[in-house]
Automatic annotation (TrEMBL):
One of its GO terms (biological process) is protein deubiquitination. This is Ubiquitin carboxyl-terminal hydrolase. The active site is at residues 89, 165. InterPro entries: Papain-like_cys_pep_sf, Peptidase_C12_UCH, Peptidase_C12_UCH_sf, Ubiquitinyl_hydrolase_UCH37, UCH_C. Its EC number is 3.4.19.12. The record marks 83 as: Transition state stabilizer. Belongs to the peptidase C12 family. It catalyses: Thiol-dependent hydrolysis of ester, thioester, amide, peptide and isopeptide bonds formed by the C-terminal Gly of ubiquitin (a 76-residue protein attached to proteins as an intracellular targeting signal). GO terms for molecular function: cysteine-type deubiquitinase activity. The record marks 180 as: Important for enzyme activity. Keywords: Hydrolase, Protease, Thiol protease, Ubl conjugation pathway. Residues 4-226 form the UCH catalytic domain. GO terms for cellular component: cytoplasm.
Amino acid sequence: MSGGWNTIESDAGVFTYLIEKLGVKDVQFDELITLEPDELRQLGDIYGVIFLFKYPTGEKPSDVPKDGTFDHDAANDIFFAAQTIQNACGTQAILSVLLNKDGEVDIGNELRGFKTFSSEFPPDLRGETLSNSDLIREVHNSFARSSPFIDETTRAATEDDDVYHFIAYTSINSTLYELDGLQPAPINHGPCTVSEFPEKIIPVLQRRIARYPATEIRFNLLACVRDPRIRARELGDQEKLEEEEHKRTEWLWENALRRHNFVGFVGELLKGVVRDKLAQGEGAYEKWIEEAKGRTRRRAQQGQ
């Protein structure tokens, strides 16, 4: 049994560089701010979307989905894997899109080999194979936030936790599928060509969001698209190319910060502050502590 999986953020930069480390070429993720077909179309060639939402704890599996219909035959004809391990759903949703776009997308030798190896397996065994892939797990974990206090690979979620879940939507064989490893089969949402995807996916997402109270706003939607830098170069759009290159630079910096453990830095910073207060003379350190206690008490009183 391989090691555990950490949680990763629903972030375009995280997802983009994760798939590149897995060997996927010329694919990018972009965050969608509105549920508008035009916003999707403006992104160019779209391979699918990844949707993040708060998972309703205590919800029991059903023989009939709340929207669409289960397609058990498709579970063996397309790449669909059951989710068999905690925290892997982000990467599993990504692969649910990309491994069903092999031919349209260069998924690289490693993922192509994984797909070929697992293609004859049933969904539950595919899920086990994915969960036990050292390569996929190590790349996934390399994009997790550094946490010196909690080992998420061994900690199980409890009923008190807010649990979030990733699922994928994509057009396969002119059908709109919802691919959720916690469901028994792919969910068929009706006919949908690749060109129709921007129009067909929006009402499906709207119906899912409508199941939640109006106060629930914690959703995130990422589109899996052809690297927009390619089109910018083809069109000679230097402004767009520079914009995308700047975005990539920012993503690299943000990903580096995610992986860095700042506990040591904060500890050294506090030591420096204490040394400075002690060097100011007798009583300066004690005065600083008392002032801090006073500010804390005032904030507590204001919050009551």
